[in-house]
Write the structure tokens for this entry.
Amino acid sequence: MKRKDYITWHQYFMGIAQLSAMRSKDPNTQVGACIVNENNIILSTGYNGMPKGCSDDDLPWEREGCFKETKYAYVCHAELNAILNSDGRSLAHSTLYVTCFPCNECAKAIIQAGIRKIYYLEDKYPDSDQVIAAKKLFRLTGLLYQPFKEDPVL
């Protein structure tokens, strides 16, 4: 008889997103993403961090101050990293598992990549202009998004 206490596909993929977030060197915010196709095959993962070839020791991690002296000028978000890390594979009709609701910039990339559904672990900034704009873009394009409702594994 098979085990009955195994995790669901949703828990597995959100767990991968959570593990990916643990790779982030950001001292304040760690976000992870996992993109999965319709056959439950992982297509890509990502986390928030500096672009390839840029030393995260040479760029700022500050949140406040002059724009070019903060992380916001340099950090690549987890969702965008996952899209870029897909190595050219089609992401059409895929599902994104992400630990934090996407911003408007990532929303545009998600839509352009053909991702059709998002499960998110938390919506930390629901009243921010970036999240409001992201949700508007998702509604206009029919992209489905919903909070992750199962107990996360991690």
User: Anything to note?
Assistant: The radius of gyration is 16 Å.
